[in-house]
Amino acid sequence: MEKQPPQVTYAGYYHSTPEQSSRLSWHSHKCPELVLITDGCNRTLFPGGIEFQCPKGTLIVTPAEIMHKQIDTPRSEVLYAGFIPGGGEFDASLRILNLAEDPYPEVWLNQIRELFFSGEGLEEANLLMEALLAHLKRREGGIHRKQFRHPAVETAVKYLDGHLTRKLSLRDIARTSGISPSRLNFLFRQELSVSVMQCLTFKRMFLARRLLADPMKTVAEAGGLSGYPDPNYFTRMFRKVHGCTPLHFRKHLPESLAGFSWRG
């Protein structure tokens, strides 16, 4: 049976004025929603004390039927779209993604919004949403793949997996692959849609989330075992990726958002 593309159910744009921030009251949606901060900063609150601090370039994936509240700073700009996932098996669980260096989501969400409101481009809007969801899926899932087109990428990823706790530089990683740092970065972006160092951060954060779920380990131990021996730096990096501190993540996630996944 042919897979059905996702269906865009609504799309839009809003911004706060220089004089006044924008506040949306507590609400939920009947379908998953993508929210991209294109300028300024956004705070999004969820039940159980979960709070995301989202600067420009952050994409929030909000599941269906979960209450949330958005607070934007002055001069903020936001693109959003709701969708029925279709047959593409997109993970619509709650998380934020750092897309500051990725121009495609903003371009596609703008096009989806324009097509949706034209009333004559719904089919094309659905196809663009399918492309966007596939792009996000590749970006997230690619770092955990085991097979790659280019042997240098495969060598580098294996090296990262075996040395997550070490202090690594792009030059160190490229040396193991036998190519220049710039060439390795190009290949990573081509295959995984992320840079080498972004891939390293995502892998470390994936490990950190698993370690934080172990009540026998302190936050400092979880940071050290995932490659961040400095607890303060670990907290800063964790907040940058997840929008909350490691302690906040550990304290609130199990009781308020059980079953949701968090991605770097």
Explain the overall architecture.
The protein has helices at residues 104-118, 122-141, 151-162, 170-177, 181-192, 196-212, 219-225, 231-242, 246-256; strands at 7-15, 22-27, 33-39, 41-46, 50-55, 58-62, 68-72, 77-84, 95-98. The radius of gyration is 19 Å and the shape is globular. 43% of the residues lie in helices and 21% in strands. It is α+β, with helices and mostly antiparallel strands and 264 residues long. It has a five-stranded antiparallel sheet. The longest helix is centred in the middle third of the chain and has 20 residues, at 122-141. The chain has nine helices and nine strands. The chain folds into two domains: 7-143, Regulatory protein AraC (Jelly Rolls), CATH 2.60.120; 151-256, Homeodomain-like (Arc Repressor Mutant, subunit A, Orthogonal Bundle).
Q: Which key terms come to mind for this protein?
A:
five-stranded antiparallel beta sheet, Jelly Rolls, 9 strands, alpha+beta, 264 residues, Arc Repressor Mutant, subunit A, four-stranded antiparallel beta sheet
| Structural class assignment | alpha+beta
Rg result: 19 Å
The CATH topology of the largest domain is what?
Answer: Jelly Rolls
The percentage helix is 40-55%
